[in-house]
TrEMBL record:
Name the UniProt record assigns to this protein: Triosephosphate isomerase
GO cellular component terms given for this protein: cytoplasm
Pfam family membership, one: TIM
TM annotation in the entry: none
Gene Ontology biological process terms in this record: gluconeogenesis; glycolytic process
Annotated catalysed reactions: D-glyceraldehyde 3-phosphate = dihydroxyacetone phosphate
Cellular localization per UniProt: Cytoplasm
C-alpha cells in the first residue's frame, strides 16, 4: 500500500523575499504533523534555501536542468539545488515543458543527487512515456484544468485512471499523482479512489485567504 503524498507547487504566486513561502510551508508542516500525511512544497528556486532552512518539510524544486558543473548560464544545477535544501524536483510541469530527451536527462541529473523525481504529464500517452523513463512519480495534470478550480477528478477522471493503468503496465514501481483544480477534501478522496497516490496542487491553497485552513480541509476526509 502506497502512502499518500501531497505536493504544493507555489509557482510564482508569492512575491517578496521568501517570507510568504515560509509561511505557507509552515502551514503545510502543521497540517502534515496533525494528519500524518506527507506534504511537500515546491517554492521558487530563490526561496528553496530559506524555506528548507526554516521549515522541517520536504522541499522540491519546480524544475531541474540536465547540466553538470561548468559553463551553463541560467540553468538549475542539481547539486546546488540539493545543497540549497531540496530533496526532490518536479520535471516537465505544463508551465515549464521539456523535450523528451531533456526529461530523461533531468531525471538522471536528479537521481544523480538522490532526488525524488516527479515528472508532470498532460494526458495518458505522455504518462506512459514518462513512466518508461523511470521517475519515482508521474503527476498527470490536464493543462486546461490547471488553475481552473475544476478538479481533474471530477472533470476528467479517465485521464487519472488511464494514467494509473498505463503507468502500471510500463513500470509498476512508478506511482501516480494527479493535479489541476484540486483544492477540497473530497477532491483528494476522489483522486485516491481513482488510483493515484496523492495530488500535486497550487492555486486552491496558495491563493486561499487562509492556506492553513484550506490544507486542513484538503486532508479532512481521509
Ligand atoms: O499546476 C498545478 C500544480 O503543479 C495545479 O495547479 P492548480 O492546483 O492551481 O490547478
Amino acid at each position: 500500500m502506497s502512502s499518500t503524498l501531497i505536493v504544493l507547487n507555489l509557482k510564482t504566486y508569492l512575491e517578496g523575499t521568501g517570507e510568504g513561502a515560509v509561511k505557507v510551508a509552515q502551514a503545510c508542516k502543521e497540517v502534515a504533523d496533525d494528519s500524518g500525511i506527507e506534504i511537500g512544497v515546491a517554492p521558487q528556486f530563490c526561496d528553496i534555501y530559506r524555506v528548507a532552512s526554516q521549515v522541517d518539510l520536504p522541499v522540491y524544486s519546480q524544475s531541474l536542468d540536465p547540466v553538470g558543473a561548468g559553463s551553463f548560464t541560467g540553468h538549475a544545477f542539481a547539486q546546488c539545488v540539493k545543497d540549497s535544501g531540496a530533496i526532490g524536483t518536479l520535471i516537465n510541469h505544463s508551465e515549464c515543458r521539456l523535450t523528451l530527451a531533456n526529461i530523461d536527462a533531468s531525471i538522471s541529473a536528479a537521481k544523480g543527487v538522490g532526488f525524488r523525481t516527479i515528472v508532470c504529464t498532460n494526458n495518458v500517452a505522455t504518462s506512459a512515456a514518462a513512466a518508461a523513463l523511470g521517475p519515482d512519480y508521474v503527476a498527470v495534470e490536464p493543462p486546461e484544468l490547471i488553475g481552473s478550480g475544476i478538479p481533474v477528478s471530477q472533470a476528467d477522471p479517465e485521464v487519472v485512471t488511464g494514467s494509473v493503468e498505463a503507468v502500471k503496465r510500463i513500470d509498476p514501481a512508478v506511482q501516480v499523482l494527479c493535479g489541476a483544480g484540486i483544492s477540497k477534501g473530497e477532491d483528494l478522496v476522489a483522486a485516491l479512489e481513482l488510483g493515484s497516490v496523492g495530488v500535486l496542487l497550487a492555486s486552491g491553497i496558495v491563493k486561499a485567504a487562509d492556506p492553513g485552513a484550506a490544507l486542513e480541509d484538503l486532508v479532512s476526509k481521509i
